[in-house]
Design a protein that fits this description.
Elements (H helix, E strand, L loop, with lengths): L1 H37 L13 H4 L14 H15 E8 L2 E8 L4 H8 L18 E4 L2 E4 L5 H4 L3 E3 L12 H8 L9 H14 L6 H7 L11 H22 L1
Parallel strand pairs: 1-5
Antiparallel strand pairs: 1-2, 3-4, 3-5
Helix pairs in contact: 6-9, 7-9
Bound molecules: FE2/S2 (inorganic) cluster (2 copies).
One FE2/S2 (inorganic) cluster binds next to loops.
Length: about 250
């Protein structure tokens, strides 16, 4: 009896601890119950069936009926990829080149990415800025507006093909002399357009014509003044040869 009297505080403590433990367990159960009641499954969403009517408009996945494993399917996709690849053959800057590309590949991307000729720039990809101008069979074209497959079989000259044995083309030299560039991003397209312009007009250019013909080339830096000066200067130098070429 004496021993029990001495131990009653510890017994009360054990009892309190038991009560606290039970209470905690109960609140955990309660929260789990509340969560399960409020989660999406119990908002009635699990009873909503997918609207299969909408699924009919989705593209069907075509599985090769002969495919036995997923590797067969992968191989089938690769074959399909090869089928849609096109072979492009060009003569670029006097060199015969060829390469495979997707049919949708633009000429500018073929030149830059397949041939590594990054002098031709992409400023807009939408036929506006003229940074991508190259010569195709002697005429200036915006290479972002032509598919590589369309150009197949033609002769292409890019900015890299203008200099001769390390000597700048007269138009390049004139741009350098008259500071016809600042950042230089538009310059390859400007130069290629100018070369074509001078040869088309047989060296017979005036400022108005140059400004009009540069309509399709956008420069964000120079204000065009020095570009026009450079083209007119190159025109003077090339007059003789340009006349002969035009005749
Ligand atoms: S990139 Fe071709 S016109 Fe701009
Ligand atoms: S020099 Fe910079 S865009 Fe023409």
């Amino acid at each position: 009896m004496v021993a029990l009297k001495e131990r009653w505080p510890s017994l009360i403590l054990v009892f309190v601890m038991l009560v606290v433990k039970l209470w905690r367990k109960k609140s955990k159960l309660r929260s789990a119950l509340i969560f399960s009641q409020n989660c999406c499954c119990n908002f009635g969403l699990n009873s909503v069936q997918p609207n299969t009517a909408n699924l009919t408009s989705l593209p069907k996945v075509v599985v090769d009926p002969k495919a036995k494993t997923s590797n067969d399917t992968v191989r089938a996709w690769r074959r399909r990829e090869e089928e849609i690849m096109a072979k492009v053959k060009l003569t670029v800057n006097g060199r015969a080149v060829s390469g495979d590309c997707e049919e949708r590949t633009l000429l500018v991307h073929f030149i830059r990415e397949k041939l590594g000729l990054t002098g031709t720039h992409v400023g807009c990809d939408t036929n506006q800025c003229g940074a991508c101008v190259v010569h195709m069979d002697g005429k200036s074209v915006k290479s972002c507006s032509i598919l590589a497959v369309q150009a197949s079989g033609s002769t292409i000259t890019t900015i890299e093909g203008l200099a001769n044995n390390g000597e700048l083309h007269p138009v390049q030299a004139a741009f350098k002399e008259h500071h016809g560039l600042q950042c230089g991003f538009c310059t390859p397209g400007m130069v290629m357009t100018a070369v074509d312009m001078i040869s088309r007009h047989g060296g017979d250019l005036d400022e108005k014509t140059v400004r009009h013909e540069l309509d399709g080339n956008i420069c964000r830096c120079t204000g065009y003044h020095n570009i026009v000066k450079a083209v007119l200067s190159a025109n003077e130098q090339m007059r003789g040869t340009a006349k002969q070429a035009a005749e």
